[in-house]
Amino acid sequence: MALSQRAVASLAAPNLLREVFNEVKDIFQANNAILNIGLAQNELMEDKLVAKVKECLKFEPSDASYGDPHGSKKLRGIVASMLNRHFKPRQELTLDHIIVTTGSGAALFFLTQAIMDPGESALVLAPYYGNFDADLCVLTGVDLVPLYLDEHDDGDMNVRPHVLEAALQNAANRGKRIKSLLVTNPHNPLGKCFSRESLEVLVQFASRHKLHFISDEVYGLSAFGHLLDKDEKTEPFVSVLSLPNLPDLIDTSYVHVVHGMSKDFNLNGIRVGFIIEQYNAQVIDMLKLSALFSYTTSITDRLLCNLLSDEEFIDSFIEENQMRLAEGYRYATQLLDEHGLSYISADGGHFLLVDARSKNPHIRTFADEKRVWKHLLDSGVYIGLGQVFHTRVPGFYRLTFSLKPDKLAQGIRKLVTALERNVAQADQK
Question: Is 406 exposed, middle or buried (0-12, 13-18, 19+ CB in 10 A)?
């Protein structure tokens, strides 16, 4: 056999998101012909971002040299300062708490290797981002166990201690050795933020069972619910690091946070993520070692130093981005209401889940859901397939609303047309 057992196991592990991407040609190409309303990318700040990045991107002789594998001191210090301003951690972050990686997916991969052993499992609040199946599992020997917060409703984010305990017990009954709990906040794909009270319940649950608490906060600065409610004093996103009583809830060495440049700063292609490791020096040491395999380029490091050091621009960018996301969300939900398409309301991130059954009651199975998706793809439109996010009920699609208004409107019209056409075809049978 040409492959290692690790590779064979990784190839055999289910990864629905990758299977879907294999069916969509050139989905990651900037000039592809497909109308993309499914990938989590934000086009709303493109004008301000492009102009600023052009100012910051200048090649210097030092950029031809090796940099620091886990990020320069300057960059890590600037990132710590930015997070102190916006995540409001209970204890101030320093550059020594930050590890720079080539994207937040790489951050989760290396963090998983540092804190989990082959054969162990991670509980992940579900539905969940489909590429976690790769980020945490490829070549690590780790697998994921979905934890749904409600017996039937995938959109329910109310955290009930007895549900958490039952999920852990069910996993143990199936022979799973649970080592960590992975939470996305704001949630992907639901686009909702966990309340402070819910976070505390989740952290206490992890503490009771000595689980590592991994908080993926890559959409943390893209929360906009406070603008929808017209109450700017209400901030829906709460970082786990900001909990004032965190040391009373859990051994803080078990708390790990991931952030990055892709989502909150609309720089998906830059491929830079951050592991925020405030309380565990041993994990930091391990991550510095593995950083040799996740080397951010010197020119990227300096580009981000130039960008993030302009605090006035960054703080203004974050504020305006949240305002534009709120506007985009309002417009998307207005269009969905006009077309009679139900959805799960959101208050953070770039997307929401659309319930296509409200327009097409013939969607009863995941095969039906994928058939509609393929019809839409054949019409030149890509949307997120619910099943790749491990939804339990067929008929949900993840719709990105952080797009130019005309593109969003066109995509929703095509979605409605595809649903109506499938209804007509089903009625004729």
Answer: exposed
- Residue 236: partners with Cβ closer than 8 Å, 6 or more residues away: 186, 193, 223, 224, 225, 226, 347, 348
Topology classification of domain 58-313 = Aspartate Aminotransferase; domain 2 (3.40.640)
At residue 160, the 3 state secondary structure works out as coil
pLDDT band at 20 (very low <50, low <70, confident <90, very high): confident
> Which residue's entry shows tokens 């289910």?
14
Positions of CATH 3.40.640.10 in the chain: 58-313
What b/e sequence results for 114-130 when a residue is b if at least 16 CB atoms lie within 10 Å of its CB, and e otherwise? Answer: bbbeeebbbbbbbbbbb
Q: Radius of gyration (Cα) for the chain, nearest Å?
A: 21
Q: Beta strands 212-216 and 255-260: pairing type? A: parallel
For residue 95, what are the contacts with CB-CB under 8 A and spacing of at least 6? 73, 76, 77, 79, 80
Average pLDDT over residues 72-97: 98
Helix, strand, or coil (residue 422): helix
Number of Cβ within 10 Å of residue 146's Cβ equals 14
The whole-number average pLDDT for the span 406-421 is 92
